[in-house]
Amino acid sequence: MRIAIDGMGGDNAPLEIVKGCVEAAKLIDEDLIIVGDREQIQNELDKYEYNPSQITILHAEDVITNDDAPVRAVRTKTESSLVKGLVLVKEGQADLFVSAGNTGAIMAGGLFILGRIQGIDRPAIAATYPVLGKGVALLVDSGANVECKPNNLLEFATMGSIYMQKVLDVEDPTVGLVNIGTEETKGTTVIKAAYELLQKSSINFIGNIEARDVPKGTCDVIVCDGFVGNVILKLTEGLAWTIFKLVKTKFTEGLLSKMGALLLAGKLKELKSEFDYSEYGGAPILGVKGAIVKMHGSSGSTAVKNAILRGIPYVRNNVVQTIQDSVLELEEVIISE
Amino acid sequence: MRIAIDGMGGDNAPLEIVKGCVEAAKLIDEDLIIVGDREQIQNELDKYEYNPSQITILHAEDVITNDDAPVRAVRTKTESSLVKGLVLVKEGQADLFVSAGNTGAIMAGGLFILGRIQGIDRPAIAATYPVLGKGVALLVDSGANVECKPNNLLEFATMGSIYMQKVLDVEDPTVGLVNIGTEETKGTTVIKAAYELLQKSSINFIGNIEARDVPKGTCDVIVCDGFVGNVILKLTEGLAWTIFKLVKTKFTEGLLSKMGALLLAGKLKELKSEFDYSEYGGAPILGVKGAIVKMHGSSGSTAVKNAILRGIPYVRNNVVQTIQDSVLELEEVIISE
Q1: Which of 141-180 (B) contact A at CB < 8 A?
Q2: Are residues A107 and A151 in the same domain?
Q3: How many domains does chain B have?
């Protein structure tokens, strides 16, 4: 398997990206192709011991930044690391593309360069959501589609179930629909219609879930539109940050507390790592004809390493093909409406 | 001032409701009218020392439960504590109504019995959101209107600003619009149109905010539709619960940690109370012709007491009238579109 990595995407590129590639390479047999400015990337690589036949560079002149308008950037910056990486996948020269770059451009590139899986109306970003003490759930859509139709939510549920099964080894994953109450009659017109579609489908739909249940691990796949998904993801991030900061402040007030804090330092660190997105290996883009994993823009080397590692079963276990195979059934559910 | 309290609404009624009334009465001169089953309420009152000329009972035969369909319940259960309490406000026999009952029924009752303020299309629930270490922000709408038009969001912003100013003494409160990014071009069609309206209005609009900024106290008034508001409120609740539970588990593993936990017990308690909704005194319903404060269904006596206390400046500082006075300006902004 060959994995293309966007060497120039994200806040810490190429430094942390290259470091993450070197770390990942030690653990796997796969070949890594880092796409980006050859000189900069080689300079970073030279800091480490690595196998030059396992890690190679594909030079790319240009970079798509976070300030670039996604569609325009993908159309015009054809020499960018992001576009060249996706073209590698398109042409079968790589099996997976991993990037911490401009999210909109990754989505647009996925759509224009790889194309949608036929029958999937809206590809989605599936973020892994840390369920404290229980591993992860999958949040689909986590930001790609701010406005959704009921059939899009059914697609998200189906693609998320397949990913959970194939990549995270969850048998018959449970699916919940984010709503303002658990009753069938709650929510917007779109949510109510999606509820009916989900109930008719063959996925393991457990019904509506409230946002308070999201962190408790009530279901394996959390389905919502991209606006709500973005709110869930970012609020979780902001709130965890705020609480940990407050815990730290509180626990270092006064001498007794300082002693307590000292004793608990290790535990606090453990807690923080349970909340650390970088442990969870990025967010797959589901619904395009090829495997893409999107990382957080601020990803460090651990996040890069984990995104690469998580990408391997995504390719090996044929997630893209399985989604393609599920489309017919999806259409039956939608048409029976 | 006379304050009507729904003696039968919520999970802990009448016990905690009555206890909260007795606690509040000790701190204020206002008269309290507890509406509900006379015998049950009197039994509870008899447990405490109280001034029977300050706390009186208005008997109500019936109760609206959480299982009741809101509109139907308000129309048919005319002898319920909820309806009778609102009628007291309608008829000028009370200045404020406080209830921990069925949220939908409180909204429906507000609309049918008190009526909308003319020019306000959609009344909203304004929840106080704990900003750790900094007091509170106001989240409008926190669940009453799952689908909104741009002008509704402008109304929420205006009413929220007035409440923040009049009740929480925040001068020129800042207003943020919840969106998936801070750029003006982000979000749904409704959000983009609301952004333009907010920018034209005279409120202190700081632009889009991301959900990660909500707990950090980036602004005083957080504006969103009721679906997103519900997600924010419930996710905060669920996540805080999960994190505190995890902190507790982690901190009681092993002997050293147990010692640390013991030393920190007081601090943990302080932390939890910063997150305790009951400290913040309920959620005002804004946009109806009368003052209503809705409490969490599981409110205990402290929450009841605080809701009553917070309700006093809501009435005394003429929030309802000020909202009414702002309507003309609101209409100018909307019409200039």
Answers
A1: 143, 146-147, 178, 180
A2: no
A3: 2
- The minimum CA-CA distance between B137 and chain A, rounded to whole Å, is 14
pTM score of the predicted model: 0.91
Clarify whether residues A129 and A229 are in a common domain: yes
Residue A337 in any domain: the answer is no
**Statement to judge: residues B90 and B108 lie in one domain:** yes
- Check the CA dihedral B198-B202-B205-B207 and report its sign: positive
Question: Mean pLDDT across chain B, nearest whole number?
Answer: 91
Residues B262 and B141 in one domain: yes
Residue B327 domain-assigned (yes or no): no
The fraction of chain B above a pLDDT of 90, given in percent, is: 76
Asked whether residue B272 falls in the same domain as residue B295, the answer is: no
Shared-domain flag, residues A293 and A272: no
ipTM for this prediction: 0.90
Calpha distance B156→B45 (Å, rounded): 38
Cβ atoms within 10 Å of A33's Cβ, excluding its own: 20
Contacts of A76 (CB under 8 A, 6+ apart): none
Pairing between β-strand A174-178 and β-strand B55-59 as defined by DSSP bridges = unpaired
**How much is the pLDDT for A244?**
76
Q: A271 vs B234: CB contact, 8 Å cut-off?
A: no
Q: Render pLDDT for B170-222 as a digit per residue (tens, 0 to 9).
A: 999 999 999 998 888 889 999 999 999 999 999 999 999 999 999 988 999 99
Asked if residues A40 and A14 have their Cβ atoms less than 8 Å apart, the reply is: yes
pLDDT in tens, A191-228: 999 999 999 999 999 999 999 999 988 999 999 999 99
Residue length of chain B: 337
Residues of chain A positioned with their CB less than 8 A from the CB of B264:
251, 257, 260-261, 264
Cβ of A15 under 8 Å from any chain B Cβ?
A: no
Q: Which residues constitute the domain of residue B310? A: 1-120+287-319
Are residues A146 and A230 both part of a single domain?
yes
Residue A328 in any domain: the answer is: no
Answer yes or no: is B329 within a domain.
no
DSSP letter string over B178-215? E-SSSSTT-S-HHHHHHHHHHHHSSSEEEEEE-GGGGG
- pLDDT over 70 (residue B260): no
Say yes or no: B131 and B86 in one domain. Answer: no
Q: Is the pLDDT of residue A278 over 70?
A: no
Residues making up chain A, counted from first to last: 337
What residue type is A253 in one-letter code?
Answer: E
Reported confidence tier of residue A267, pLDDT bands at 50, 70, 90: low
Q: Write the CATH number for B132.
A: 3.40.718.10
A198-227: buried (b, 16+ CB within 10 Å) or exposed (e) per residue?
Answer: beebebbbbbbbbbbbbbbbbbbbbbbbbb
